[in-house]
Design brief:
about 130 residues, mainly alpha, single chain, about 0% strand
Amino acid sequence: MKDIDADYYGYRDDDDGIVIPLEKEKEREAIEAAVSQWRADKEAGMEAGMEAAEVEPEEEVSLYPVEEEEEERVLTELAIQKPFVAHVPVPTQKEIEEALIRRKKMELLEKYASESLREQSQEAKALLGFK
């Protein structure tokens, strides 16, 4: 298994200089055959009384058919549409930072302060008129 590499699977067959010239020859033969077939079909069409200019290509079928009126209506609606406005107050960066600081202070207070100390601080805030 150690000796298995890309050569084993034939990935570098074109490096030997034999495959590429053979492929070019086959490609040239295929192109010549296709051109001769096209010329034969063209001549057969002319013999049948049709000129090459009279032959019209088939109209391309749309995969997603949309009426022109509907398409114009949608485009005008998109052009008229007003930008989206949020009617909800969005907090500023400073307000977010203050809320985070308040939450962190409360977590630290709950973690390290005793119940009696918290009650005393609540009373002091009430007497001083703070929240």
